[in-house]
């Protein structure tokens, strides 16, 4: 197949920042792209070859869009699965596969998949409704504290809550959910795996999510993770196994916990380029986006190793500001060594809205960490 | 000035591959762009915010385009200078300045500028027409061999010819030209300088153009140049001086000869991102394109040092092929360590047409050089 400056068409469901960063590489290779997104202001609207506005959960819209392209991928999981399955049955290459997506879209099914395939994960129970969970709790079949997770449509901390006392269950939606045992962990890690249809498979180095000591929020994604080599090796091996068990094609970001006694537990996966791999644009020989593209087009995978250490800081809308966005002090951080802001292109900020990220690279990871902290304390997303 | 996700407008004259690569960074920073190019199939057409089709040499077209934007730059020197001057006089920021462009557009004036400012360059004489040159030669005021260069509109070897015997002058156009003394040199070097309006100035490392031993054609651009540190230091100092003498804003690529006795002579300059800096996308902390953008927007300049060694190989149309392009064996080179093809997006190949380039990065420059040779011998631009 000739992908380069040809009539080949790659379809992308979703036109957000992940798609936008993927388009840097389709442009670099001059691969023709079709993008579908509900918003007329989607960051992908420019830089793709053809933009279509439409509902990603609507069967007809997704099916008709998919019929126009040769290979179909997605940058968001919330897409119409039936349409993807029909397209795949009719011969369109859909990567990652709708089968994988089906296993992942529901967290209960995802967790059951891990158990079935001997992939270590925190113990849990699955409930059709919140009421069923409450009954089980009253019957003392589960113990406080635990982590409540709704099984579908959660993202970025939405749909996840630590339940320490029964009153914490008030106001939760009465939907399908799981109750997961709270496992004390010392690190949250992630490994991005890429795999092509021929079965070539590579992992990026293990990254570490460093949390704010009080706010319990991820502040920095650090590559490589500052952990013991043996633990890193174990995390990579588990991530590879997860990708192989899914028979996955494309990127799979595997989020994991490192427990107090150095066990690795798989938390959840994302079948696409992932926030934990953004550092790779500047730090890696091949960015996660280029490797996603290589994987779904069955091209050889690029080197996943790093040229230098990389740290990512998210740029989220500051509390108390809504409206036309201003990146306060961005000129200041641009003057520092190895600092690259990525502005996603959303014109309006809101509290906590993901507006961009900043990558800090340096030969010395400690120096990168120091600069990252300065970046975090300097730039502000206001209006 | 708020450039990021704002109403600020950057205008770019020319929509070719240099503009296309610049747009990766305007997209990364979400800076609004207007592009003017004569071709409806310009590589910049997608990924800019507003594309205008029009003649870059036409006063009205360039002037009206420029009136719409806040800062105006160009990716090609062949633009209407009068329009730029009028725009600058009326308050539009034009970077690089039309004054510099005026000094550079004509190679005779450019050479005289070097002489006047004590910048080392090969001896030359300037002629209003080829006939005047011939008269001077007949009168023995200049000696064979010498290098004939037409003073305007030459590019990529067009408009340059080594004259070894008088018959070599046949068929040359009867235009303004210079006759330059042939100075034996052992290396062709280049240094990219960036400078912002505040006067912050940085150079990229010295790169080396390695020539094919027989064809006398540049085959590889190698960063850093494999030359003595003292010579590199001299080349950087001369390049810095050239940029300062021009009072230049933006990128200035300074091409130089290293003579047999390690003198540095300035050959010519280009006031824009340059082929000799393409390696910087993968190898440098800040690419030449991002630094051009930072410079013309008066932002702090990024780190010009390299993370790893970088080598660039041009992808030109193979002889004997015209028509819909095919990049033969591109899948093969994608499997090699640190290899990144850039496909400019021209749908039709012609012999020697610049269709793209390939960057090879590696910690070890010798290993990069070995892979670069394999790349050169493997990929072919055919139809």
Would you write up a description of this structure?
Chains A, B: Belongs to the PurK/PurT family. The structure is a homodimer of 383-residue chains. With 383 residues, chain A is an alpha+beta fold. Chain A has 3 domains: 9-94, Rossmann fold, CATH 3.40.50; 123-181, Dna Ligase, domain 1; 185-382, D-amino Acid Aminotransferase, Chain A, domain 1. Chain A has helices at residues 17-28, 59-66, 81-89, 98-105, 107-116, 130-138, 229-246, 280-283, 288-296, 330-334, 365-378; strands spanning 9-13, 32-37, 50-53, 71-74, 93-94, 124-127, 146-150, 160-163, 177-181, 185-195, 201-203, 207-211, 218-223, 250-259, 264-270, 309-316, 323-324, 326-328, 339-343, 348-349, 354-362, 380-382. In chain A, the strands form 5 sheets. In chain A, strands 10, 11, 12, 13, 14, 15, 16, 19 and 21 form a 9-stranded antiparallel β-sheet that branches. In chain A, strands 3-2-1-4-5 form a 5-stranded parallel β-sheet, sandwiched between helices. A 4-stranded antiparallel β-sheet of chain A has the order 6-9-7-8. The radius of gyration of chain A is 21 Å and the shape is globular. The model of chain A has no long low-confidence stretch (mean pLDDT 95).
Helix content of chain A: 25-40%
Q: Which architecture of the largest domain in chain A per CATH?
A: 2-Layer Sandwich
**Number of continuous helical runs of chain A:** 11
What is the strand content of chain A? 25-35%
CATH fold-level assignment of the largest domain in chain A: D-amino Acid Aminotransferase, Chain A, domain 1
Query: In terms of structural class, how would the helical and strand content of chain A be classed?
Result: alpha+beta
CATH class category of the largest domain in chain A: Alpha Beta
Any idea what the CATH superfamily of the largest domain in chain A is called? ATP-grasp fold, B domain
Low-pLDDT segments of chain A? none
Biggest chain pair contact, residues each? A-B, 45 and 44 residues
The profile of the biggest β sheet of chain A is: 9 strands, antiparallel
Q: What distance lies between the first and last C-alpha atoms of chain A, to the nearest angstrom?
A: 47 Å
Task: Please tell me the overall pLDDT of chain A.
Answer: 95
């Amino acid at each position: 197949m000739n992908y380069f400056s040809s009539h080949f068409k790659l379809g992308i469901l979703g036109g957000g920042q992940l798609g936008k960063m993927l388009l840097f590489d389709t442009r670099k290779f001059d691969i023709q792209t079709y993008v579908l997104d509900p918003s007329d202001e989607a960051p992908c609207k420019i830089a793709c070859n053809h933009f279509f506005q439409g509902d990603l959960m609507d069967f007809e819209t997704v099916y008709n869009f998919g019929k126009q392209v040769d290979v179909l991928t997605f940058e968001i999981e919330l897409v119409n699965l039936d349409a993807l399955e029909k397209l795949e049955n009719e011969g369109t290459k859909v990567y990652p596969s709708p089968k994988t997506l089906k296993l992942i879209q529901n967290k209960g099914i995802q967790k059951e998949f891990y158990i079935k395939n001997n992939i270590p994960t925190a113990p849990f129970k699955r409930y059709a409704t919140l009421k069923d969970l409450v009954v089980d709790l009253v019957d003392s079949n589960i113990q406080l504290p635990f982590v409540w997770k709704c099984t579908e449509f959660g993202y970025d901390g939405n749909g996840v809550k630590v339940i320490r006392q029964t009153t914490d269950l008030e106001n939760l939606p009465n939907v399908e959910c799981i109750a997961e045992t709270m496992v004390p962990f010392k690190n949250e890690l992630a490994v991005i795996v890429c795999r092509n249809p021929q079965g070539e498979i590579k992992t990026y180095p293990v990254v570490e999510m460093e949390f704010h000591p009080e706010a319990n929020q991820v502040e920095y994604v650090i590559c490589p993770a500052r952990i013991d080599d043996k633990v890193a090796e174990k995390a990579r091996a588990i991530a590879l196994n997860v990708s192989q068990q899914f028979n996955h094609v494309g990127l799979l970001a595997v989020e994991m916990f490192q427990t107090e006694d150095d066990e690795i537990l798989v938390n959840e996966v994302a079948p696409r380029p992932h926030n934990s791999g953004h550092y790779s644009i500047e730090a890696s020989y091949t960015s996660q986006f280029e490797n996603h593209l290589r994987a779904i087009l069955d091209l050889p995978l690029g080197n996943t190793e790093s040229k230098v250490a990389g740290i990512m800081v998210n740029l989220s809308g500051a509390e108390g500001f809504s409206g036309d966005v201003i990146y306060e002090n961005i000129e200041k951080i641009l003057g520092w060594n190895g600092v690259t802001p990525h502005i996603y292109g959303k014109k309006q900020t809101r509290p906590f809205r993901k507006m961009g990220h900043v990558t800090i690279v340096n030969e010395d990871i400690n120096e990168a960490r120091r600069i990252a902290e300065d970046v975090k304390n300097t730039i502000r997303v206001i209006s």
